Amino acid sequence: MRDTDLMGGFAKGLKVIEAFDDTRPRLSIADVAKWTGFDRATARRCLLTLVDSGFADFDGKYFSLSPRILRLGHAYLAATPLPRLTQPYLERLSERTGESVSASVIDGNEIVYIARASQKRVMSINLGPGSRLPAFCASMGRVLLAAMPEARARALIEATERKPLTPYTLTDLDTLMEELAAVRRQGYACINQELEIGLCSIAVPLENARGQVVAAINVGASSLHYTPATLVEKLLPEMRGIQADIRLVLA
Prior knowledge:
Blueprint lengths: L7 H11 L10 H8 L3 H13 L3 E3 L4 E3 L4 H10 L2 H16 L2 E8 L2 E8 L14 E3 L4 H8 L3 H9 L14 H14 L2 E4 L6 E9 L5 E10 L5 H22 L2
Antiparallel strand pairs: 1-2, 3-4, 3-8, 4-5, 6-7, 7-8
Helix pairs in contact: 1-3, 2-3, 5-9, 6-8
């Protein structure tokens, strides 16, 4: 791909959109310039273009994304069959285990939730389609990283700001690479209170009919009721069955 094939202004606008998140819902021009690395004039033009297009609101000082921005996420969810195809299986697995079940894909160094069936709330944050978590310390993230070539997975983890979310979060690069090697061998990943105190989970990859890993599913549970060993003993057999069923419907 040549540079002349790309639209720099469009790319800048997308980067401005990504500056907003749940911790930064309202931003000034100076804030956006800081988070994107753009000069103030560029940040201002991008923001005003988003306002003019209906994708952002402006109160005279701060900008915020408008509900119209949901069209962008909905377009992905509507265009890919994964959420629609996996949802019935997630619900079945959730009913069988009595726990919350999710599916996600990887986007850079984060996982993005695409479907969820919730029996009970096991995390302090409310997760749903579009929610993001760091891949390096999430069970689905480790499954998806393990499916990549080792060099690519290492580069993604190395480029991640690996802040510990709990005292149990693994952050050392070499230790994480050893974890990924174990995930490749065993075909599943378990985490124990690395994302949040009191939460443990187990994840397996989802493959299409050609054997390509396209997503991951996990079961999240309370660490008061499960250890990594009991996750494997009690939940993995059910997950393996759902994993095989989903593979049959993925082209």
